[in-house]
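Q: Start with the shorter request: fold the first protein.
A: Done. Sequence, then structure:
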Amino acid sequence: MAQFEKTILWLGGAWVGSLNNYTFDKLPIQRLTPHDIQSQPGAIPVLCVIVISIFLIALGQIWYLRLEGRFRRYLAIYAIMAASLLICVAIPSLNLRIHHYILALLLLPGTRMQTRPGLLYQGLLVGLFISGVARWGFDSILQTSAALLGDGQTNSLLPNIAEPITGMANITFGWSLPPSPYDGVSVLVNDVERHRWYYGEGEASYTWSRTQEGGLEKEYFRFGYMIGSAAGDYSKAGVWTTEGNWIPMQPGPSR
């Protein structure tokens, strides 16, 4: 019976953790950075629930450590970890980034006790480690602000797109000239960049034609300002329907 419980609890937790992109996908938290937390609705309450849950779990694990007489040893280990993280925080021009695999490595020592909750927590953390490394690799714990932002939102302005001229075979977009410091517009069609327009390159417009091979299918268009070769945020998708109608973009940038 004990081996059966170990299998269910440990492997069950590992399954949930390794598939966290599905099991935790609905949580409005993608990265633990101030920018992401503030920009995602509902992220702060969810983060509070997660922190409180981890705190309560930690209290339970501390109780088991005291019963086994290993509390002081583990307290020293976590004190060293905390001091190391504080040193990383103090390094100028770099940001501390707690990745999935790092979080798992930090918390795994506290799950060594052979208890039912400990087995479940250990499997969950091993699953998070596997998922984090498989999806993103061994990313550095210290990153610059630019590297940390990645392809996330920059809160840049969005292009002002006029009502397009539509037909069954082609669609033509026009836009107002970009304000400073932007000098161009990027056009995504079905999430693939198809056109870049810069000052001095003719009319501020773009025409997209349906190919015969592609058939009559919905097409999705997003627009973003350019500064040199770098693009800012893109708009949400506007849709060119199979009937040749245009569904405008909703306000705000794409996620």
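Q: Next, the second protein, separately.
A: Sequence, then structure:
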Amino acid sequence: MTIAEELRSRNFSIYGQWIGIICILLCIALGISNIFNPPIIILFSVLCLLVTRSPLLSTQDHPLTLGRISGLILIFVEVPLLLRICPTSEKFDVFIRRFTTNYMRAGMYGLMSLIQWLSLIRKTTSLVAAAVLLLAAAICYLIAGLKGQGFVGSKTLGGQGVAQMIV
């Protein structure tokens, strides 16, 4: 199935996945570019950019740990082939595999979008673009769930058997 055929499939999980790919690029780019803003904006740009210490990824227990929110998490969620070819911990793999349903992905994107919207309380920055696209991906996955469409991963991105071909 080509990208054009996938986009014509009217499956909202495919739309969500492709918007997610755009979110990955946007979150990484905006996370880097907004690091040079006031301190509170730096926090939100770091959350947009990369994974901070997470209880799921760390061996230390710390109740105030931030994490599980970023463009780097999205890379592993949306491109399943990377879980096969990148050395990751078992805890990280289990965490990423939680997002296999449309509703879980909608919740994840909704939470990430909310965090970026909260960054606008202090100062309006370009992180609004990340918030809007993260919200669009959440809506696509939610519509797919409400319509009863099963999650279908893009073959182009390593879904539907491509990841199983690499051993």
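Q: Describe the second briefly.
A: Confidence is low (pLDDT under 50) at residues 51-69, 161-167. Residues 12-33 form the longest helix (22 residues).
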